[in-house]
Amino acid sequence: MPEPILVAIAAALAGKSATSLYELVKRKFAKDPAATQALEAAVAAPDDSQPAEALAERLHEAESNDDEFADALREEWRKLPEDKTTHGGVHNQVTGNVSGKVVQAGDVRGNINL
User: Fold this and answer.
1) What is the pLDDT of residues 6-20, one digit of tens each?
2) Are 24 and 72 in contact (CB under 8 A)?
3) I need a labelling partner for 37 at 20 to 30 A (CA). Which of 23, 49, 78, 112 fits?
């Protein structure tokens, strides 16, 4: 399972909000058709979490096999502004077992009844 930072990086890549990061990953994945497909699928469906999760797995594999890439990826991530994955939006992440109801929302006008 990839670290939360890799999930966040994958979400930023999917949303095309980090050009330098995207170019770094695209170059790394250039000789790996499956990894390239994961990147393209995440970019094609930025609102779908499954392609981003698959991309996070590919990033995890790439980092595990290439320390230089891992360092470069983390460095590019650190260079980005604090709102790395969104520009005025909301990025929520729920992990683990949830025993109650979870609501993820941006702007709510009015009530929420569950």
Assistant:
1) 888 888 888 777 788
2) yes
3) 78
Return the number of other C-beta atoms located less than 10 Å from residue 82's C-beta: 4
- Buried-state track 52-71, b at ≥16 Cβ within 10 A, e below 16: bbbbbbbbbebbeeeeebbe
Contact 18, 80 (CB under 8 A): yes
**Which two three-digit tokens encode residue 20?**
């330098």
Q: What is the pTM of this model?
A: 0.69
Q: Which helix (H) or strand (E) holds 18?
A: none
Q: Give the C-alpha separation, 50 to 94, whole Å.
A: 14
Using an 8 Å Cβ cutoff, are 7 and 56 in contact?
A: yes
